[in-house]
Fold these 4 entries.
Entry 1:
Amino acid sequence: MPPTSNPLIAYHSASASEPARRGVTLRSILLAVLVSVGACVWVNYIEYVIHASRMTLSHFPMGSLMTYLTLALILNPLCRKLAARYALSPTELKVTLAGGLVGGAIPSVGLTGYFLGAIAAPYYFATPENQWGEFFHPYIPQWLAPRNVNHALDHLFEGGPPGMDIPWEVWYIPLAAWMALITALFVASTSLSVILRRQWVESERLSYPILRPVLDLTDREKPGFTRRFWIGFAIALGIISWNMIHYFVPGFPQIPNIRWGPWVHFERYFPGIWTRINMFTISFAYFANIDVLFSLWFFCVLFILRSGILNRYGFNASSTYTTTGEFAWLQLGGFVTLVGWGLWIARHHLRSVMRIAIGRSAPLDDADEMMKYRTAVLGFILSTLFVIFWFWRAGMGIGVACLSVLATLIIFLGVSRIVAEVGLVFVCTPIGQQEIVTRLIGPRNLSGPSLTVLAFSNALTSFGKGLFMPSVVHATKIADLCPREDRPRVLTAIFLAFAAGVVASIAYTLYLGYTHGAYNFNDFPFTRYSRSGFANALSKMKDPAVETSIRPILLGIGAAAMSILTFLKYRFPWWPLHPVGFAIAGISYVHFSTFSVFIAWCIKFIILRIGGAALYRRYIPFFLGILTGYTTGVGLSLVVDIVWFPGAGHSIHGY
């Protein structure tokens, strides 16, 4: 009898192969939502209560990565052994990953920390000395921010009495108004990601380096779990575990430059180098293009030399750490040119998308997308118009609102493009949206209501990280790896993960605030950054100095330099410098990663010179092991902090 004729054998064969055939299912959508909610709650608890590592600083949030890898590498293989038919297929795991990425961009240093801090700040931090009541309160509509009725905001920041319920009555209307704005920004981000997906993936062939190691880890059928993998795993976990002994024995020697690297300064006028060896950054950077890695550290070295010389001659070109003030506009010129050039080379694609959207024929098919191009174009236009309308109703002038939305979208698009092309997990924009709008128009030309709303909107780019658009761009790439007919379901998973994550994060953050006191979060976005937007706006109201011409000049120089570098890169294949390195050189998150990027470049350069692409592929498992071991080590440290050091945790993950 042939083996397949045995019903028992045939049943087991079908059960074993079923997960491989399964597409985007209802349970995968529910898991995407659960991973999003779990990441939001887990991150808020770790950062606000335990005071341990910052879990959402990177564009692959550690909270999401930890939750997802636990599912993909532990729970799902265990399920495959015990009951194969309940195991998740590769497609289902990818849907879960997409939801986790979107959810990971929401808590703390993603959305809710900045957003809740910004709307609570103007009434809680107002004092007779800072004159916020005189300068801001007359311009804040009733629906824009909660009032300190019955000490509602005092209890949020300082903790309420035992058994106190959250005073939802002061939060309902502001939360509803802001959620309408945030949802519109999410729709605009998703629509723009769908419109540009084919151009980035197929025409420009962006590599999305931060997805590659995680997708390799997801597929247990690949021969990735080799001896090299376990060596990398043991090195990363061993280093973190060794340094954790210091938690219990303060005098115990640590392996240096792992948890916190010292700054090295060559001379007092020159910015320093952050010498932390960040295994998280290195493990992702190994998958990036070697020319890009070289350009990142090369332009950072040029930034240090340029800034040191200019500082020596009396120009305020940088702080002791990163680019600051007027000279950040040099990088902004490169950043804006990067976005403009990307749209220019996509012009034929965008023209075809518009032709399809208006019902005309075009050499393009939208059957591969999560949503139809007509829906995406309409969604982008309507959501953008709504954001402009929202800002106008809040008090902005219509021209200021248009420029503010344009600056926000440039930040979203630029950061997303850089992360998708470069593979850096720590990236932000040179200058925030509030500063761009204020300086381009001039404080003298801005009304009090416009400056007030700009102070609120300072929270909408997540300290220049692009809010959730980088995550949506990568979720769109993940959808491209799913079966064609199931991709609209991935869109459903993304939207549900976003909605559930936002609700869970806001509710849990407010609960923790009224229970523990938000000021005890020791959280940069909720306390210090939330005040900075209003402090900057107040300084412009009190002293609207005449703008100098140096900023437009530096903006133009940056744009010209970026244009030349872009021309050289596209005109001469041998040109080694990638222009993106110039656009982000000296920016805080990027500059903090320079030393680790340099290490990754050295390793990859040596491997390619010795053994070429074959040797590079052989060492992929090693860096997968580094990433997995590092993530496991961070998780182990969190468990130790929860058990032995609650409220006094140890920050071992960051840039």
Entry 2:
Amino acid sequence: MSRILWVDDEIDLLQPYIIYLKGKGYEVTTASNGEDALDVFSNQHSDGSMPVDIVFLDENMPGMTGLETLQEIKRIRPEVPVVMITKSEEEHIMEQAIGEKITDYLIKPVNPSQILLCLKKHIHQQEIVTEQVQQNYRQEWSDISYMIDTATTIEEWQAIERTLSKWEINLQDSEFSNQMASMRSLIADQRTQANAAFAKWMMRNYVSIVENRKTQEENIIMSPDVMKHSVFPLLDKGEKVLLCVIDNFRYDQWKTIQPLISEFYSIRTEEQYTSILPTATQYARNAIFSGLMPLQIQEMFPQYWVEEGDEESKNQYEKELVQTLLDRYRRRETFTYWKVNESDFCERVIQQLKGVQTPLNIVVFNFIDMLSHSRTESKMMRELANDEAAYRSLTLSWFRHSPTCELLRRAAELGYTLVLTTDHGTTRVKNAVQIIADKNTNTNIRYKVGKALNCNAKTVMAIDQPKRVGLPCPNVSSSYMFCTSNDFFAYPNQFNYYAQYYRNTFQHGGVSLEEMIIPLVTMVPKKD
């Protein structure tokens, strides 16, 4: 039962409303002036009565006015919703009431249906929203399962990722998510089902996807196609372009920050593309900037390719690779390139962006990648991002409060068309699988490249002929192995320790919808 406090100096005239509300199951307490209303709040704990859930407050009362009463109520119980009821529609009264954080207001004369709607809106919203969301998801559950069971094209897998992300956000990020535990369990099961099916599909099709991409038989955008597909056409139209690459950026994270960016940018096209394997910066981001598969980079520009075993940074030649791409296509555009690891440097980029005249401007943000790594290494960060919903929340908080948001706002003011994307996503790993490899094998726990790799897990995706999929071979007998779904590799030596250490951390490099199906969005500045 919910308790209403109704404050009005003509409360006797409101008896029909009070009888009506009691008939609907509400407890109604009345007061004819502000002082009596405050007494209700002061005594509600001592007299054992139910706490007040909502206040209907008359604006025009003798003695303590409605606005004065509102101020005191908010001082005592700032969280309680207060609905102002007034005869006056004067602008200054409404501005004052809104300034004092009224929840809503009604103009006299009110009718019972208005009151009931107000109650549903402000004290029953949680139950109504929860029930509706659960009902909608139950209705769509079987459709999602059917989509997963029958998907045969990359476009269908993209639709599955969009649908799963939508429901994960609706069910987990809702302010009423505590009431949706059973639904969250269902969507988690569907995510697991989808990733298992996607991995099997990729095992069967990845080689042909890469090979057919060369002959243009498949209309699949992969990492080397991003610049040609999304950036060059804009430059051809004479638009100033800001290419923003956020490392480790999942589709659900994009949907989380989209409302903030939409304050100053409008979406022109929202697409998804498929990251190449491994879904790691050395391979995927270098492929974006060069327009080449990793093997082609190694063969054509060996000075810009860093082997797995080398200690130097694997992505230190991104600017040079962009230039090779422009040169190959005989493009004359000049460009700027910034890699942002710290907030202070982002501030400098904002200042520089005002003065540059180059048509193409590239900014790489490494914050989410750093968040992923720090979460693995820091117990505190593990607690802050203990699941996907918390991970999205941290992403949103970073974007809202970082200079990144201000940079994009300034870019919109300066008339830049924004291309927002990433090199790959990330997935939360849970299950360790044992692998045997020699000491020269790379350290990434979602994929391995080396000689004599030995793993008996049926869920592992192996590529024994790397050149067929555009991957370098460090040795003649090198092969690649990729974890799928939420697995990760661990060596027999100290297996249990590493299984525990990495469990529930966010990793990349392998095969999952979150890592491979990623956002590619073109946005234009909103006009004033």
Entry 3:
Amino acid sequence: MDELEKKEELEKGQEVVETEPVPEEIEEAEPAAEEAAVEEKQPEAAEEATEETAEEPMAAAPAEEKKAEKGGSNIIGIIIGLAALIAILAYCWMNPSSGSSVQDTGVLYAKDNNLYFYDLKNEPYLLQEGISEGGNYHYFYTAWGAGCTEEGHWAYFSDDIDETGGFDLYRKDTKNTAAEAELIDSNVYDYMSSKDGEVVAYLRQNGEEMELCTFDGAEIQMVKDGIHLEDNVYSLSADGKYLAFIDGYNMLCAAVVGEGNALPLTDTAETYELAEKTGILYFVAAGTDGYNIFSYAFDGEEPAVVAENVSSMELLPNGRDVLYCKTADEPVLYKDIIVDDMAESDAEIKEGDEGYEQKQQRDAIREAMENGEGFEPLLQECYILTGGESVLVEENVVAAVGVDSDKPYVVGYRAKEFNPLHLSVIGGGLDMVEYIYYMSLNYGGMEVFLTNTAGDTDLLTGSQPQLDTLKLSADGKKAAYMITDPNTGGNILMQMELGKDAEAEAVQMDVESFAFVGGELFYYFDYANGAGTLAMAGSKTTIAGACGVQYADDAVYYIADTDSKTGNGQLRCWDGKEETLIADSAFAFQYKGNGKLAYISGYDVTEGLGDLGYYDGKEARILDEDITAIFIY
């Protein structure tokens, strides 16, 4: 059995996690009809629903709006059936399962092919006229290509979008309504700004090739030409000081913004990450005996090796620490996995006796055991690089991923403790020992662990826990995650208390999304035809017919009681105790943070027009009429 076959067999073992009984009240529930996953796919689903109605090809979306999928043209004059309409409502631009923080920034929206801005305080004003010249900047009621910076007071936007996706890139000081919008460059196809908006990096077409450029408020600098227009080809640090990119020759390069030529680092980079909190560039590239993790601090020095012979690397969601796995350094020793239970009986077997050839195989195994021989391990060790030090957090790991938390948490699969083989049942030589060992790991079941650098470890229970769904409460005392129902293939939501060696409890079947809100677990289930039911763990209250669900720090926002003819419904929020009506007629909304949100009211799907509403946490009011879309950012 070669190493590739061994790895394939072991990876299959991730699906053989031992199943556990599901409580009777959940087992008896009716399975929901299959629905497309909502998380991170909203605009894409809307596009599929009306893809045949697009009148012109869609232009490429700028990098500032990478969260949005590209879509087609407006659907003016198209009549949509009720089922399709409600389904589209459910795929609003906000992430229904998101619990992450949202920046309290202004509202950018489109009206009459013009761009308008509302700063959440004063009256909206015209930012730019004629933002598209044949290219598309929006699809249905959502738009992309413009956004407000996370920190600071800049609005970046694309203007004169052409049919190939090229545009003029502008920025505007939103605190100065009298200031003119500033043209940065033309023929731009992609861009990203620093958090404060003072620096922007972008891809500009020049003839047949793309150039990577930066603008620091004073001048444009062309950093490198021959860049490919593709995902993750460049990255700007959060503070706007540093730039990492892959050039046209697959060379990973680093540059200090405004300081001249880029420094080539390696042409063997498999992946790279620019840490938001520290500004350090981490990348995986070929080393002497395998792949190593290197770090580079943009100081002109040689990149430093921080880990050798790694198999994976991931920047944790906290934007600071790095998770990586590597094959264990020590071999698997035969003496550690074999028990000799035939020493006495084999001593009686002589040459020529029946079973002598089998005894010779066992003698070869005994010799290997006595000599301390072994074979290459397949399981991995899992580390977190934090504060410049690598901390071993788990051994015997098959796969691991980071958890969305400010603290360095990781969740993953590990092999259960191996039970030594008895020599009497091996039935072969050293090759058979290896084969049985790998098969035992594969079919012996896996444990799913949650751990951190402090050594706090809990085991997730249930059938096939879905690692990428795990969420922690803000105080770190609870965890929730999805498991796969072994009978229907649907999702079952589980919740557990950490640090108490307690098994997780099944909360609900057929869950579409969930999040911790104010320390309590809220979830959205029984999703069908664009609507579902909203509930909170431990509460008897449920809210049916909800769509466009978005979770915030202290409440969950949604649209309910949708009108079957217009698609507009009541915009509400619920904190688990009290349900608040925000607006009577809302088609879609965008949460702006701090209990504030913008929404489209009285939307007419045949005309593609609606009114812009805003809720400041206390009262709702209409800001403008007959708008076409709100920008996603």
Entry 4:
Amino acid sequence: MFDINDMAKAAVEPVLFTPLQRAQKDGYINITGVEGKKKIEYITSEKHVENYEDPEEKVRAEFFAELIYKYEYPARRIKVEVVVPDRLPTDRADIVVFSDNDCKRPYAIVECKKESVTDAEFNQAIEQGVGNATWVKLRADYVVIVAGGTRRVLDVSDKFGALEREQNILADLPRAYGKPQEFRFYKGTDNDIKPVSREDLIATIKKCHQTLWGGGRLSPPTAFGELCKLIFVKISDEQKPRKNGDPYQFQIKTHEPSSKLAERINALYDEQKVKDPEVFTESIKVDDRVLRTVVSHLEAINLNKTDLDVKGVAFEQFMDGFFKGDFGQYFTPRPIIEFCVNMMKPEQDWDVLDPSCGSGGFLLHALDYMRKQAGDYYEKGTVDYFNYWHDFAAKHLYGIEINDEIARVAKMNMIVNDDGHTNVISHDALESIDKMHDHNRGFAENRFDLILTNPPFGSKINLAEKPFLSTYELGNNVDAKGKKKPRKNQSSEVLFIERIWQFLKPGTGKAAIVLPDGILTNSSMQYVRDFILEKFQLLAVVSLPQCAFAHFGAGVKASVIFVRKRKANEIPNVNEAIFMASPELIGYDATGRKTESQLDEIVKKYEEFQKDATPFFA
């Protein structure tokens, strides 16, 4: 019989530590050594010692502790590195849970893999675990494959054939030798889904994308589009009202074949698609078994309760490399976005637009700015606090993105960060504003209080392909007699300057625009600079360091100009003071962590400059 004291200890002791910390405290595990040279000792396995720096070993250690404190198996019945008798070449099971104190009768075989394991490696681990569990001299009832947050549990008892890999999938390993639960995660219980760290979320998103991409099964952009749909379903399921003790639906169910799981997930998606048809119009197009694997990656995570900054950084970092490689676009670095928002200081009733919003970075940071402002005025968690920032998100945030796939990502990114996706549209921002207005009445000339944007650099708008070019002042040449002649082509960033002017409110509308330095310095661009000074008051010019976009694979030298749209008859004043600065640091390293920054200092200096408006160079 098993030791009742072990069981009582595991079940009754308050959860003051993580399972791994408790295992160390209770003497089942001993981790020694300095960072980079740590060893782990499993006391229950004849003091078995392994290298704790191995990512796979960390997964094993954590699950070993879970077996004791979460699954309630006596520690004395859990062994590591168990030799599979008479199996050649010699094989060892990572963990074996036995059903007797003498450890002669295996109950569950566990194979552990590192978090970043591929699907092929994970499936290979399944076969290894099943092979060990069904070997005549190491016969077990269950196989568990653990790769960080991704898990697969199989019932390999005599009820199923040796080759069964579908009908025998369980939601989770039974607790304390009991019956398998129908689901693994239930709201408000110790088996509730949990928020995760930035690193874990990035790893999970990457695994999901790799599963959907499948080495070429789908194109990378299509794979990411499908991932967005599934994340949308996941978040919707988390937000559904349910009582404590009720199961979530976005998870694997015991003995449920892939086809039935797919039916359940698609039903959830269709239900939400009806409520919000602007987000996604197409059905989920993922193979049932692939869908099950993606669900296994995501099911344990609570996206709604994961910290907003964690989600923001995780999604941005994943998408940085993804879009750079697959869409040929470059993201605006996070610190530059924050800097622009902090310089412009949006107000709660301002209408804010990004006419080339990409994945929604400027919009998200404007929303985050407003959320922090709400915290200055109201207590977090109150109705007033929520209404303050949520009304801004729903009624005052607007985005335009020409690429439909990226527009979906922007909407998805806004949903992940607690909404603001309603007024993001897929459209060419340089085409007729009337067409955009017909699609969404919020888009109109002279409408916006603030525009924050990094328009696409370098692409040419050709008159033969885009007749609307001739409708732009900057799309025409003007001869000495003032006669206009349409240009054959014009740079996209030049036309965006004029489109921004059209969108802004006369007299008060402001904009922060990232532009290539060529517009500000090349002699051939003088007519563009004349347009800017005539149509806008130039408030500030901040020259960005060459390295600003280096992490994104772009070597372009750029600046941010901060402008105010002049009134209809406002005459430029040659004595208008312009704040100019040239920071050397942009505020974050390649991993997204905060570093020493000159951008925050520039914001303070700009505030001082605004008080007396005298010429200034920082």
